[in-house]
Every structure is written in structure tokens, then in C-alpha cells.
Write a structure and sequence with these properties.
Strand content of chain A: 15-25%
Radius of gyration of chain A: 22 Å
Oligomer: homodimer
CATH architecture of the largest domain in chain A: Alpha-Beta Complex
Helix content of chain A: 25-40%
Number of helices of chain A: 9
Number of strands of chain A: 14
Chain lengths: 347, 347
């Protein structure tokens, strides 16, 4: 029963095999050569069962999201960048400064190590951009046909800014609704990669980016900010319908004020999709008191990710909890949260 | 372009469909009727983008794990219980009191809602048992053949006990190695469900359980504890080999002192598997200074999950970083970390 170590130098495999997930030497090899070097920091390198974080007294924000986007790589980003930005952004719109992330991989047997490396490089790049550390992680491998390449879960911990208390219920009549830039770029870029759109050339790229800098600038300029959210799954329509419902107020939005790229609009029309329902991954919606709307807009526009920001609507007196869209021809319609999503696995 | 809400009362579907993951009304329905009621607490009910936690000054432990166990339900537990206990236990062996968990689901289209409900009930039961709250979550749905039923990621946040600083590097010559109970029960119970073992009857059940109470009792009785770990993937062999390697000391273990159920041993022999390599999900390995070994053992044995605890070995003077197993016939062999795992998806 004496155990013999495998002879010779360890093969650096080109593809993920099931044993990479077994918790043995091959898992160590994957962690030591492919994963950990990319995210090296003293907390992660301690390789304990948990990361140990030094947090001062105060409120802490904690969030999680799993990313199953298909394809793994798309114009403007990939699942690694998305997984970091998505969780950073959920913390940021909670009024927290994102600090620490976990990164948990589900790998399908047969995934090319080169693909995994690109995805991890891009996760690292996004983490650097956002100023967060990846401090703990996990890797599981499942057999072919039991996943679709790579799924990533990230959870995140951030420190909530003192005095900040954000919730859709805090919206008051007269408040302005601010949007940090063009909508639907992420979802449409991913969909165009997936649909059979032979012959259609497009410059569309996902907007996937960390928005914590944007949120920080906005909170500095508008300390009375009531509510922030990033319009991901469910799109801008989902956020606005939820804001109206939970505040109990009428939210009125001017369709012509919503920034949108021409090519995104064309792509949406071609596929018969309402861009208001489509996921964004680098945008911020904020509700600010009327007296701070101007300074908030200026601050967001001064940020490189907020050049096209606009005030797109306001919170009304009517206590009906509806979101009303005033269309470009002057019509009005009630914005509902989408029922499902037109296409799954957009994030 | 006026949107019409689906007519009539919402169907309570019997199976997961892709639109359950779309972030729209159907996602809300799943969250409101199936998921959130099971874990209701004011933090989760706030439904923000992040959970907001009140943490006093001090060190915080943060960890994550994804669970892909197959089958979803096995003797002694299921993936829901496993996902909560695994993360609770990673926090506990870091010297932290587990407090808050995230729970992120990847659901395969077609999964029965009834299965999901059982799994979630069992996650809730385990959370209650461990005294933790599930405060944030996420749900994604992928098409048939892109997952295998249900995958769950949990991340956890805990508060580190003041003065506790645990690491394998802290082990010193003379320290005792304590194990809280029988090994290999989880892995063998799951494997027996998977292997073609027609005709084999077994009473084997997984040991999946929260061990934070056990860790607390041990730290109370042995405040000088050097290191704790739960021997999951890679088994007891993985933990001991890692302890030896990272402490740089010889770790000697007496095979006859390792508690093991007879039926577990038989099952392992039948399948040709070394039980030392097999995953456990409710056990604790601890390294304690010699002067505290007796009180640590008494405290762990006094706990309902530690009745069969034993001192299984000690840390030696030799600075070779090897783990030596003294076998039942008096032979010696070097314990290596398993290369891969015999069978994937055990946790």
C-alpha cells in the first residue's frame, strides 16, 4: 500500500481533466501554476480555509453572483471580466467601497487551459481596475456535458460609506433619475455573437466595466443620493419598474433622454428586442434629490465612464407605483419588468 | 409597443424553465414563492444588491465553495445541507464564528421544483443548526445538458475569535494531532450511491454537519490551538500531508488510532479506495500544544459530534516535512496528498 508519486516532472496539461478538481496534487498544480500567481496577494497566498480581512468598525456589504455567460469571450470582455465587474458593481451601488472578492470556478472537463488563462487574466485586470483583491477561491471540475465551459461565482465584501443609506423606498417626489450612459450595449453585443446573424457586421461591444469610481464620484457630489442600482438582468426597465413599485411613486422617464448608440438600437430592432429590457454591465442608475441633480450629473459626466450621462426622468407625486415612459412621439406607456429574458445566459 | 402582463393568475410551474433565470417577473416569482420564504430574515428581505452586515471592529473571515455533488440527495444529506455545512466549516476551522452566508444557485432547465424545495429546506435546516443567516443570493438557469441538476455556491463571512491565529506553520514538535471522529463516511456514502454496487446493502451515511460548535468547544478548552482544518476533498491524508509540508516537521500518525466505522472500511476495501483519501464533511483535525491535548480531547468528546474523537498522532522533531503513517502491522509509509480524486463530484 506504499504510495508512489507519479514519475518524472509533472506534465503541464493543455486541457482541464477531472482530476484537476479532486483536491489532490493536480488541483495544487492548477492552483499553483495557473490560478494563484495571477491574483497573488498576501491574503490569498496564506491559503487558509478562509481569507482573513482587517475591517474597521462599521457596516459591511456582502453580495454574490454566478456568471454563466455564453460565449465565454465576447466583444468588449469575457466571463472573467464580467464576474469581477458584476460583483464590484453590486457592492458599489449599495454605497460600499468594494474591497475583497472570492472567485469560484466550475470547469468543464476538456476546457483548454489557454482559455482559462485568458479568462483569469481578464479577471485580474478588472480587479486591478476596480482596486479590489481576490482573496479566496474554489475550483470544481465536472465531466463533459455537465457544464458549458466555465462558470464563475464571485462573492464580494465592501465597506459601506459612513452615513450612506440607499434604498428605492427613499425616493421622494421631485427626485431626479440619473443614468450614467448608453443602454443595452452588453446584452446586444452578447446576443449578436450568439444569434445566426450571418452577414451582419457590427462594432457593438459590451460595456462591462467596474462602476465603483463612478458611484464614488456621484456620492461625493450628491451626498443625499437616495438609491443606486446597476441595470443588469432585466435591463433599465427592470430597475425603473422596481423603483416605482418599491417607492410607491410614479416614476416618469423621457424615452428621448435615454442615451443609446445607434448600432445598439439597430441591432435591437433587427432582433425584435426592446433595448430597455437588455442587460448592461457598466452603467449606473441613481435617484438624487432635486437640489443635487446638477452637481451629480456634472460629477458623473466628468468621469471617463460617465461622459454620456443624462437625467432621464423624475419621481412624481402620484402614489401609484407605476413607471411611465414618455415615448419619442409623445405617447405614454407603462414600463413593466420583463417577464423572462429574451435570451438566457447573458451574464 | 404597449406591454401586456401575462393573463390570469401566475402558473406555479412544476419544473425550472429558462425564464426563471432571466431576471424578470418569473425570477421574482421563484424568489418570492420558493427561495426567499425559506431563509427569511431582515437582511435578506431588504433585497438590496448586497447584504449589509453590522460587524464590530476586528478580523473577519471570508470563504467560498461550490458544490457539485452527485447525486443531489444521498444517505445522510443532500447538496443543500452540504453547501451550508461546507462553508460554515471552512469559517469555523479558521477560528471564526460563522455568521452570514450567501447562496447562489445554478439550476438546470427541467429540474423539478419539488427537488429544489427539498434541497433549500435542507440548506435552511443546516443554517439553523449552525446558527448562521443566509443574507444574499443569486439564481441562474442554464439549458438542459449545461449543468447536472443543481450546483450551489456558498460564500461565508465570520468573525474571528480575538487572539486566535491558526496556521499549519504554527505546529511545534510535541504537539498532538486530534481528529474529531470517524473518517471517510461522507465520501463512501456518496460513492456507494454512484457505483454499480447492485446487491450491496449498506447503512453508510454521510457525516455532513456543521462543526462550528465543535471548534468553539475546542478553542475554549485549548486556547493555544495551533491549527484546525476539516478534511474534505483530499481526505485526512491531504490535510496531514499539507500540515507536514507547511510546518516543515515530521508528522507521525498511528493508523490504529484513526476512528473508522467497520462498514466504511468494508466499502472502501470493496471499491479499492484508501479511506484516508476520502472526503469528510463533519470532521475536525486540530493541532494542539501537548499541555492542552487532554483538555481538548475531553471537550471535543463531550460534544455530540465528537464522541469518537481521538489523538491520532503528533508533530515530531524531524524537519523533513513528511507525514509518516505507522500502520496496524507496525510498518511505516509516507502519506502523500492524493494525486487526483478517485471519483469526482463528491462535494
Amino acid at each position: 500500500m506504499t504510495r508512489i508519486a507519479p514519475a518524472g516532472p509533472r506534465t503541464h496539461k493543455k486541457q482541464i481533466v477531472l482530476a484537476h478538481g479532486g483536491g489532490g496534487q493536480l488541483t495544487d498544480e492548477l492552483l499553483d501554476t495557473i490560478i494563484r500567481p495571477r491574483f497573488g496577494n498576501t491574503t490569498l497566498d496564506a491559503m487558509g480555509d478562509s481569507a482573513l480581512l482587517e475591517i474597521g468598525a462599521g457596516r459591511v456589504a456582502f453580495t454574490t453572483d454566478t456568471y454563466v455567460v455564453r460565449p465565454l469571450e465576447f466583444p468588449g470582455g469575457d466571463i472573467g471580466r464580467l464576474a469581477v465587474c458584476g460583483t464590484v458593481n453590486d457592492l458599489a451601488v449599495s454605497g460600499a467601497e468594494p474591497r475583497w472578492l472570492s472567485l469560484a470556478l466550475i470547469l468543464e472537463e476538456g476546457v483548454a487551459i489557454a482559455t482559462l488563462e485568458r479568462v483569469l487574466d481578464s479577471a485580474r485586470g478588472a480587479a486591478e481596475e476596480a482596486g479590489v483583491q481576490i482573496v479566496t477561491g474554489d475550483t470544481k471540475v465536472v465531466a463533459r456535458g455537465q457544464a458549458d465551459g466555465v462558470y464563475i461565482n464571485t462573492a464580494g465584501v465592501g465597506v459601506v460609506r459612513a452615513g450612506v443609506d440607499l434604498a428605492p423606498e427613499h425616493a421622494r417626489p421631485g427626485d431626479a433619475v440619473l443614468l450614467s450612459g448608453t443602454i443595452a450595449d452588453h446584452g446586444m453585443a452578447v446576443m449578436l455573437q450568439r444569434q445566426d446573424t450571418a452577414g451582419v457586421r457590427s462594432n457593438l461591444a459590451s460595456d462591462v466595466a467596474p462602476i465603483n469610481g463612478l458611484a464614488r464620484a456621484l456620492m461625493d457630489a450628491a451626498p443625499g443620493v437616495r438609491f443606486m442600482r446597476d441595470p443588469t438582468r432585466g435591463g433599465l426597465a427592470g430597475v425603473l419598474a422596481d423603483l416605482a413599485e418599491r417607492s410607491g411613486r410614479r416614476v416618469s422617464v423621457d424615452e428621448t433622454a435615454i442615451p443609446m448608440r445607434r448600432e445598439t438600437l439597430y441591432a435591437a430592432e433587427m432582433l425584435g428586442i426592446d433595448p430597455l429590457d437588455v442587460a448592461n454591465e457598466g452603467k449606473l442608475v441613481a435617484v438624487v434629490p432635486p437640489g443635487e441633480a446638477r452637481s451629480a450629473l456634472d460629477a458623473v459626466r466628468a468621469h471617463e465612464r460617465g461622459r454620456e450621462a443624462a437625467i432621464i426622468g423624475h419621481v412624481g407625486e402620484e402614489a401609484d407605483g407605476l413607471c411611465e415612459l414618455v415615448t419619442d412621439v409623445g405617447g405614454r406607456r407603462v414600463l413593466l419588468k420583463p417577464y423572462g429574458e429574451e435570451l438566457p445566459r447573458i451574464c
